[in-house]
Amino acid sequence: MASSNSPAGVDNTFRRKFDPEEYRERAREREKQDAERSKSRSKGPPVQRQPLKHRDYQVDLESRLGKTQVVTPIAPLSQQAGYFCSVCECVVKDSANYLDHINGKKHQRALGMSMRVERSSLQQVQERFEVLKKRKAPGSFTEQDLDERIRKQQEEEEERRRQRREKKKEKKKEKIAEEEPEIDPEVAEMMGFGGFGSTKKS
After folding, report:
1. Which listed residue, of 42, 61, 83, 132, carries a Cα 20 to 30 Å from 146's Cα?
2. If phi over 0 gives left and psi between -120 and 50 gives alpha, with beta otherwise, what is residue 153?
């Protein structure tokens, strides 16, 4: 007997039915293709990269600061506006992005380095401490260096004193010039003042 809610003769089997075995087969096929692709990409053995090292040169960010440069579209990359990376052969527009680039993975890979840092041994750390101790030792500079520094300091102090004296003289001159009122010669003549020069009669 048909229920009163569902009308007679309606097909309720419209939902799509999935075959799990078919999808398992598709997944196996896809994995096989991925494996073949990765084999074709890696022709040789994996590349062994050196651990990350600190730079042994100073990064030049200020040599072209404040300079004017004509930029043309046909100019080579090294002469275009911005910072040129000769390793990756690219131009970066500002110093912050340039630093990010040279510290980044792509640049380090081009240099043949991985992003991993080599672990230092105890002996290497101790040697580094010794080098730093010698550099900061108080007796590391000679007596001649000390004499030179004292002489330079005395010269600078003498120069500062001379400049102070010059400034005081300038201020005195300005003060005297302000205190002396300028007298118009015609007014002085009318009031009976002669010349304020010498009293000798010619």
Report:
1. 132
2. alpha
